[in-house]
TrEMBL record:
PROSITE patterns: AA_TRANSFER_CLASS_3 (PS00600). Binds 1 pyridoxal phosphate per subunit. This is Acetylornithine aminotransferase. Pyridoxal 5'-phosphate binds at residues 108-109, 141, 226-229, 284. The gene is argD. Homodimer. The modification N6-(pyridoxal phosphate)lysine is found at residue 255. It catalyses: N(2)-acetyl-L-ornithine + 2-oxoglutarate = N-acetyl-L-glutamate 5-semialdehyde + L-glutamate.
Length: 406
């Protein structure tokens, strides 16, 4: 028997929520595949994917099935015990990657927190407390905890919260010489997003990642890849490191891993993992059976030749049409990215106006994203149907036409 719910509307947000977000004027209430419906019954096409999270769209039968089956069995037992879904998921991740061990948590920030703590613990145990410095890149994004926001290279997110965690420096992305000049025997880790997501969908050069790997080996530092946004099929490989052919020591994953259910994972080798002995790190909800059952189902669907090849084919479809639209309306100068993480770089006349494009798209029934003020980002479902791609890009073109004619 369902209990009558009190009606709510967008105005309620401004009354009861902490004002750290400014959500859109409509409230999505239902989704199916790559379509979403709001409170008024209006249908939108979703090219935002919950910020690269809804890897199989909305209400995918395999995920709904996995969640409901597990919900009727066991929700939570804590890490005082283990559970079957966590072990199954760990096996799948280990079998599919360089890693020997997995640590489960609830978000990308927590996965990165674990990665950074592990890197410092390894260096501390092997070389002593002096070796604790972490090098990250300018404009990087690694999460919102105090540690991860300090490692992230965007002061607008880290300033104003008191003293920052020390021993962290930032060098320009894709600049191997800058990394070479900064790294030393005090460096415990170098942290890189294989594709910078939040700062504009900027892919790394292969030579840059290869050079970073060599520098880390030379200085006994660990190479950490933040694959929170690029992982679980987003690039057309299961993880972006496989696309580039450069293997990290530690990898963080979240977002797409749960297909919309909160879960994060840190993956690493047995040799490194042993430094997080019993009691050194923990989480109450991490590895809970619900999240792990869903993530396991996500991997079963995504880690198949058909879906991964489909991502590459859909990339070409998006790119060709977006370049056409960009040229026709003078809206953007470049379409970049890998797989289904795509950024359209706004032209000089439209610089700083990504929010205007977001709003215009929404008026035409399309959900897109920004990646900073100068880039419009697309991170749709990896199994978005071609018909939805065509219809969504038709809507995007209408939005571009109205914007540029205004």
């Amino acid at each position: 028997m369902s209990v009558e719910q009190a009606p709510v509307q967008r105005a309620d947000f401004d009354q009861v929520m902490v004002p750290n977000y400014a959500p859109a004027a409509f409230i999505p209430v239902r989704g199916a595949g790559s379509r979403v419906w709001d409170q008024a019954g209006r249908e939108l096409i979703d090219f935002a994917g919950g910020i690269a999270v809804n890897v199989l769209g909305h209400a995918h039968p395999a995920l709904v099935g996995a969640l409901t089956e597990q919900a009727n069995k066991l929700w939570h037992v804590s890490n005082v015990f283990t559970n079957e879904p966590a072990l199954r998921l760990a096996h799948k991740l280990v079998d599919a990657t360089f890693a020997d061990r997995a640590f489960f948590c609830n978000s990308g920030a927590e996965a990165n927190e674990a990665a950074f703590k592990l890197a410092r613990r390894v260096a501390h145990d092997r070389f002593g407390p002096e070796k604790h410095e972490i090098i990250a890149t300018v404009n990087s994004f690694h999460g919102r905890t105090l540690f991860t926001v300090s490692v992230g290279g965007q002061p607008k997110y880290s300033d104003g919260f008191g003293p920052k965690i020390t021993g962290i420096s930032h060098v320009p992305y894709n600049d191997l010489d800058a990394l070479k000049a900064q790294i030393s025997d005090k460096t415990c880790a170098v942290v890189i997003e294989p594709i910078q997501g939040e700062s504009g969908v900027v892919p790394a050069d292969v030579a840059y990642l290869q050079g970073a790997r060599e520098l880390c080996d030379k200085h006994n530092a660990l190479l950490i890849f933040d694959e929170v946004q690029t992982g679980v099929g987003r690039t057309g490989s299961l993880f972006a490191y496989q696309h580039y052919g450069v293997t990290p020591d530690i990898l963080s994953s979240a977002k797409s891993l749960g297909g919309g259910f909160p879960i994060g994972a840190m993956l690493t080798t047995e040799d490194l993992a042993k430094h997080l002995a019993v009691g050194t790190h923990g989480t109450t909800y991490g590895g809970n059976p619900l999240a792990c059952a869903v993530a396991s189902a996500v991997l079963d669907v995504v880690n198949t030749p058909e879906v991964l090849a489909g991502v590459k084919a859909k990339h070409q479809k998006f790119k060709a049409r977006l370049e056409q639209i960009g040229e026709k309306y003078g809206l953007f100068t470049q379409v970049r990215g890998v797989g289904l993480l795509i950024g359209c770089v706004l032209s000089e006349a439209w610089k700083g106006k990504a929010k205007d494009v977001f709003n215009a798209a929404e008026k035409e029934g399309l959900m897109v994203l920004q990646a900073g003020p100068d880039v419009v980002r697309f991170a749709p479902s990896l199994v978005v149907e071609d018909a939805d791609i065509d219809e969504g890009l038709d809507r995007f073109e209408r939005a571009a036409a109205k914007l540029t004619q205004a």
